[in-house]
Amino acid sequence: MPHLLIVDDSAADRRLVRELLSQGSDWRVSESPDGQDALERMAESDAEGQSIDLVLTDLQMPRMDGLELVRRVRAERPGIPVILMTAVGSEETAVRAIQSGAAHYVPKRNLAQDLAEITRRILEVAGNEKSLLRLMTHRTRSECRFELPNDLDMIGSLVQFLKQEASRVGLCDETEQFRLAIALEEALLNSYYHGNLEVSSALREGDGHAFRRQADERRAREPYSRRRIHVDVSLSPDEGRFVIRDEGPGFDPAGLPDPTDPENLLRPSGRGIFLMRAFVDMLEFNRSGNQVTMVKRRNSHPVPS
Amino acid sequence: MGTEKKLVVVREQPTLVIAVTEDVGSLEGPSLAGDLAEVMRVLESRERPRVVVDFRDHEYFGSAMLETLLRIWRAVRDRSGRIAVCGVSRFGHELLGVSHFDKLIAVHGSLDEAERSVHGSE
After folding, report:
1. Which CATH superfamily, name and number, covers A3-136?
2. Neighboring chain B residues of A266 at a CB cutoff of 8 Å
3. pLDDT tens-digit series, residues A55-102
4. Structural domain includes residue B25
5. pLDDT tens across A11-64, in order?
6. Which of A131, A251, B2, B39 fits as disulfide partner to A289, beta carbons 3.0 to 4.6 Å?
């Protein structure tokens, strides 16, 4: 039986919403007078094994208002949808709440007409998502392939995706996710700047503006603009294998200076590949230096001294 | 990637306190460079600056932040100043250790401790 939580500082409004929701449904309904109390009630419900499935909240409340409640639920319990019940004149705040992650909003003057139906719909969608998430926790292997343009935003999204995938298949805990993210970021940046765009590390000396200027300029110019970054990934609970290839001329990784050598420590560049090596279990470049294979194993801490 | 400032000067006297406002991955390099330019404008107007970079327990940063720290360190050194960092997460400690930055810059737990260290024996 779905468990709903009504949050409103007006007891009369809570009673009205409870009555509207009880007509023709078997939902269990709890109540809270404000956002702070609602968060506490949700934690208690978890402890009792009767977790809240959906929150319906007013906007204006003491202690913690509806907008802040939406943000907190979104951050701490992303699987729980929140429906806002808004009074006349609070449409602007409702829009902000939707931007903050609220699932829907219902003007209070339309509650009788719309609330039960919207709640039913949102519960159905949330139920499907929850089932999918549960299913994903039983996935034991994930394989994917990407062909990316030279776009830092897209590279960022890929790193986030792979971090989450590595966590979903059970390969990485939180700390290992950080290590993996560093290695992936550095490998992809290497393919982007030094591989496809052929920007020299030497340009990082000084204030580094020349480095970024050349990268921006080459992104728009052939042959650099046509080049892609190819990423092949295979993830299991025991091992993640990441093959990243660019379409540049390659380089000789053996010729890289050791950035921890006191002589090189003060140079602004040259740390990327060192960090990749530090945070994965195996790293290997192909002969031409335009493809790197990295292997990350579960619960390993390959940090060099 | 966020568009908010990642590096902010939160106090100028007696210590120049630079706060890292969120996790900064290496993909944030271009926006970090813009923030660094503003920090440098303040820093370069000082003689013998006392500087603390406060990570405020943000969990994650990569080589772009190391490069940024190094540029700040150089500017401080060139002006005969002192620099320390504080509020570094467990993973941040690991990263500073792996890259040997902890040999270059003193790492302290709290802002108070870091400030005392950069003003020590004055």
Report:
1. Response regulator (3.40.50.2300)
2. 70, 74, 104
3. 999 988 998 888 889 888 887 887 889 999 988 667 777 777 777 778
4. yes
5. 999 999 999 988 867 899 999 999 999 999 999 998 888 899 999 999 889 988
6. A251
| CA A186 and chain centroid, separation | 19
Which residues, at least 6 apart from B56, have a Cβ–Cβ distance to it below 8 Å?
A: B19, B20, B21, B87
B99 touches chain A (CB under 8 A): yes
Nearest alpha-carbon partner for B63 in A215, A187, A199, A149: A187
Nearest-Cα residue of chain B relative to residue A205? B71
pLDDT tens-digit profile of A172-205?
887 788 889 999 999 999 999 999 999 988 887 7
pLDDT for res A9: 93
Cα–Cα distance for residue pair B117/B96, rounded to 1 Å: 18
Q: How far is CA A252 from its chain centroid?
A: 35
CATH number of A142-297: 3.30.565.10
Residues in chain A: 305
Would the CB atoms of B1 and A156 count as touching at under 8 Å?
Answer: yes
Sheet bearing B106-108, strands edge to edge: B7-11, B16-20, B50-54, B82-86, B106-108
Written in H, E and C, the secondary structure of B49-76 is CEEEEECCCCCCECHHHHHHHHHHHHHH
- Chain A residues within 8 A of B95 when measuring between CB atoms: 182, 275
Q: How many CB pairs under 8 A join A and B?
A: 74
Residue B3 banded pLDDT, cuts 50, 70, 90: low
Query: Residue B96's domain spans which residues?
Result: 7-119
Provide mean pLDDT across the span B20-36. 80
Contact A268, B71 (CB under 8 A): yes
